[in-house]
Queue: 3 jobs
Job 1
Amino acid sequence: MPANRDYYEILGVPTNASDEQIKKAFRRLAFQYHPDRNEDAGAEDRFKEINEAYEVLSDAEKRASYDRYGRVATSGSYGFEDFGFGGLGDIFDAFFGGTTTRARRRAPQKGPDLQARLDLSFEEAVFGTDKQFEISRVENCSVCLGVGSAPGTNPQRCPNCDGNGEVRRIQQSLFGRFVHTATCPRCHGEGTIISQPCPQCKGSGRQRVKRKLRIGVPPGVDERYTLRLNGEGEAGVYGGSHGDVYVSFSVRPHEFFVRKGTDILYELPINFAQAALGDNIEVPTIHGKTVLKIPPGTQNEKVFRLKGKGVPRPDDRNKGDQLVIIRVITPQSLTDDQSRLFEELAGTLPAAEMSGGEHQGIIDKIRSAFGDN
């Protein structure tokens, strides 16, 4: 301790403080700066100061010498062991009748949950399916049924802790008698020891096995959807229940359908004649083929909605729609007859004019294509 530090100042008491005041101040500061409780830098040095000050001021002869000469001849070191502070748990035992190191009671604990991910086709995600998959999980040993000892034998009570799973050590200190409780080092808190381990699990009572599980995938799931299989996770301990298995999904893309939520997008290519004159075209859907009526004068990117031809909703089974996007295809090559017919047709058509709205729509698409806002 620095020479200029005053013992009374360290404990925060006046020079005429009573023995009870000094003792109370020391207890309060010891709790505050004990290294098991305070991890701040300098807490350990501060605690040593407090110990040293109390060791002097709590002794009548040393205190009288200190009051007269400003110092006192002391022997020994003033570390943690001088006052029997084996840990913060001992202090709690002394003042509150409890302990921070008491072994946990063997309450049933639920086993860990597991994760699984299944791969689905586009159709399986839309219509639902039954899937079988394999998981690896920890179960109670099939030979000893989780006991850990060989068949025909039983675990024995630990002689070190008498089956309590914890041991106590009595320690004398400044505050009186301390009772320090800790997990039994021999049985590790189990209260029992296994003299003849199970040959299957080597005494652990557990084994890892592979299991095949089945799950019913409802219609309309997607990659944001998760299903839970109750009780199919790893085994619990001390009689606790099994954990659960959470199943998520990945969906393979379709050849020409694109899913957006519960709607399905489909691009339908048509030629100039079909767009200009109209037509009845057979269109594929995920539910089968249907006929779509194309009215005369249909423009490129026109969207038609086929009600109820989309994906079922997993919660209420109502279906989304299929959106058919028209793509008017310009031929890349023409025969002589086709060229002649187009030339004759071109002579009868007025010059194409673009409205302001149409022009702005094309400009917006160009900007969007190049990422220009």
Job 2
Amino acid sequence: MTYIIGEIGQNHNGSVDIAKLIIDLVNKPIKDKLFNLELPRINAIKLTKRDLSEELTNTQMNAPYNNPHSFGKTYGEHRAHLELNDKEHYEIYKYTKNLGLDFVITLCAIGTMSVLKYFQPDYLKIASRDLTNLPLLAALAETKIPMILSTGMGGKKELDQALETINKHHSKISILHCTSEYPTNPAHVNLNTIDYLFENYPGYKIGYSDHTIGISIPIAAVAKGAQIIEKHITIDRDMKGTDHRGSLGPDGVWRMVRDIRLLEMSLGKKDIIIEAATQGAKNKLERSIATKRTLEAGHIISEDDIHLLSPGDGFKWAEREMIVGKKLKNQIPENELIYPKNIE
């Protein structure tokens, strides 16, 4: 089953209550009404934690930040408003786990590891911006907590260096293809990278972190074999905040999860399968050997006497040698099937 991560990131806008509300909204049962199916829900919730002392230069932190999505006069004030402290993260962690969901966290600096004194997340997510932050990767790897890497801002060289750093401590690593463009132009997605990762990084779980608008691309990624899907989620895409517009609202999350779960059901196995559920249609619609004209009892059947008509519960054309040359026990009217009981 595809592991689906709902990334709140900082779409909580600095509020624990908003984070809980997002979790509640996306955690509702997923149903397919046509076949009356209740499908597996989202698997995990993800938050992001920054240490502003290790985030930006003083120039950037003090730069004016005047736009409709700003929560402060400077970019530093804006970022500070969006940060939750360790205890607030712990509160959301407990809330998430009590609902039966996994908890994933992106830690953007060594200083943010203080949150690990309160709880151990199921996964540590490495943002692609930190793929080259080898000191951070080494410190996180020492915890032995499974890690998920996004490739969005790095190529093979950067990915290999990150893997080498982490593998010194453990190999519980997943790799997500990603394009760090918000939102991502579909022409820049390049889902075939998923094939490349499977071929070149065997032994790792491979997935896709999505920043496109809508749900079609992550569903296609699952069809390509992605084992993990990560997608930004929110309460309302029109909320104040920079990431809400590129996120899925509750209805979008339900539809994405539903369609991924239905796709998983539909993939099946590498074979040509005749499902038992098709037997009714097969009997009704497939063709069987029938008479071209009324044939009398005692008639010796020739190939000129027969053709094919529905339903499909009689002899098939490939089985005509079982009929041709045989004598009829009884009269069969024109355009009726010939069954085993009719021939000697």
Job 3
Amino acid sequence: MNTSLPPLDDPQNWQSVDQVVDGLAGQAYQASRALATVVYLAGRLTRPLLLEGEPGVGKTEIAKALAAAMGRNLIRLQCYEGLDQSAALYDWAYAKQMLAIRLAEASGENMAEVAERLYGPDFLVKRPLLQALELDAQGRPAVLLIDELDRADVAFEAFLLELLSDYQISIPEMGTVRASQPPLVIVTSNRTREIHDALKRRCLYHWLDYPSEEMERQIIAARLPGIDAQLSAELVGFVHKLREQALFKPPGVAETLDWAQALIQLDALALEPSQLDATLGVLLKYQDDIAAIQGSEAQRMLSEVKADLAHPSNPWAEK
């Protein structure tokens, strides 16, 4: 971490890609140069960033790290099938409206005036997307995470177009709500379906792939600084061999970190055959994948990892 670089704050004040790399590293997030570059551009150009990639490669985590590094609130919209405008943008407090009507009737108020108030700020329920257009108590915009957009219905994307292009939301009863300072928007997708071109055009794009062995070891060292170096090298090597297999769901970085923590809890200093079958469920989440790997196949892969690490020419070998 380079202490000579200024901390991340307002994206319009970001000075370099190195500043983004350094700021994320301060939150134990190891970003590649390509990822840090597109994050830097998204901040400087005030554009949403669409991140696609396999589950568990760090798409959600980068939004969390950015919010922490910038000292901003993270507002997260978790997408799901059936997500609609009332759950994501805004809704009206119907019970409160009915109570206001009854009180007005009992007190003899002018019902025309009451009707005008019923669809005003006092009765508006702000959902995550509308909340993200507001500043916090310190006058800072939020980091908005629209997570796993591919899980939502295609029609839901239409709700997002106005927000992602103009940082505003139109409420028929009230008019247009516009952000005085745009939030930093991160949209993620596991690519279970294609995101519509209209939304993609409004975003910068980056495919977040599985990290290299060197990067994954750096990630483990940043998140689990006390881990034994030999154990880290062996488990990363084994995970990378798993990703070469024809599995239904290869392990992501999140599973690598979970496995490393599990092995630490088992006081492991190196990978042993007896530990593999017992802990494969930390890495693999489908029984068919576990059945294909456990036993002799897992031991064969482990032997290859240990042989690779023992070879003097291997860059991951412990010197």
